[in-house]
Amino acid sequence: xxxxxxxxxxxxLSGLGLSALTIRDLMKKAPEPPxxxxxxxxxxxxxxxxxxxxxxxxxxxxxxSELAGVxxxxxxxxxxxxKRGDVLFRLDDRHLAAELAKAEAERLVAVESITAAxxxxxxxxxxxxxxxxxxxxxxxxxxxxxxxxxxxxxxRERTLKRSxxxxxxxxxxxxxxxxxxxxxxxxxKADLALAEAGAWAPEIAVAATxxxxxxxxxxxxxxAVAAVKxxxxxxxxxxxxxxxxxxxxxxxxxxxxxGAGAAPIVMGExxxxxxxxxxxxxxxxxxxxxxxxxxxxxxxxxKDEALGIEFVRVDPYxxxxxxxxxxxxxxxDTRVLQVIYRIATVPPGLVPWCGQQVEVFIEDAAATTxxxxxxxxx
Length: 378
What we know:
By secondary structure, the protein is α+β, with helices and mostly antiparallel strands. Helices cover 43% and strands 23% of the residues. The chain contains 7 helices and 14 strands. The chain has helices spanning 4-27, 94-126, 132-163, 168-197, 201-234, 281-284, 365-369, and strands at residues 47-56, 61-63, 69-74, 81-82, 87-91, 236-238, 243-248, 255-256, 265-268, 273-280, 293-297, 307-320, 335-345, 357-363. It is rod-shaped, with a radius of gyration of 51 Å.
């Protein structure tokens, strides 16, 4: 009897058995993998739940510059607390410093022009000068004496003419001298009267107008100085509130453009922290202001790991949900009611951070008023 007569049936039976074992193993139901984390247990018998996010009690404040420029100094540091008015960062101010110097010079020119215009008005109002009138009176007296001498010469010329000792030419010359002297006397008296009358009112009015124009130039120059100083102050970005620096998104040498990109500084009041809860619009009608709540940090769903939260307020306007949870049941058109709670107690060993997501359970107070039990399940 040949060996192959026994070997082939044995090999065939072995293959059949191995196939049967393989099929049996494949038919076994694979055990379900454990969940990545234990879901939080509901702390209330009847509750509504929603996704929440930890935020500053002042909400996150995006601090930016009103003006564009290059950052020359950053005083803000991550995690540090600042007071309202503390400097966060500065922009390059060299161009405004030059404009300020120019505006200050123009203001000084305007001030000097006011001084000159006011001096002109004072000079006009002070006329006539006391020193001017005696000289004018002396001039009149001198001309009167000369006129008397000219008239005496004219009389002598006329006497000589009657006696035939002179010609008409001598009498005419003497008469012309008298007329000229009388004109000089009239002019001297008019000059004295003009000096005694003082400055002309319209001339004073013109000088006063010049004063007002100079004052207007000074006001414009001072406004220009104030405007440049304001812009210089706007280049220094200060903390709008007391709080903690959460993010610093700028560095020295970087350019800042208002409204472009992320906010240079993000800050907020972190003592206390708040939780902003998104309640689905289907559950919004069941929410009652002041309802008790519990919050759980992601990865901390134990009974003793709940954050104690207290109701603060509700934003009474249902809005589209902005943060989706990637759930297959999540709808893009979901609308939510936002409720704000304050974190009152934190279990030992846990530290909530701004921006951290939490799971929130709120007692269904509406169900309680209908007679439903509100005690937590055993």
